[in-house]
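Re-run with default settings, no changes from the original entry. Doing this only to confirm the output is reproducible before filing.
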Amino acid sequence: MKQLLKIFAISGSILILSACNTVKGAGQDVESVGDCADGVKGNC
């Protein structure tokens, strides 16, 4: 039972850490679109 809980905890941690990277990348994409709309040269 303890091993099963350990596996779930490790799996959850991996998912949370990978989600942080995904959210950061999505934020950068949205910022890039905003820069393009604002007319920043080299972003479109």
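The radius of gyration is 18 Å. Helices lie at 2-38.
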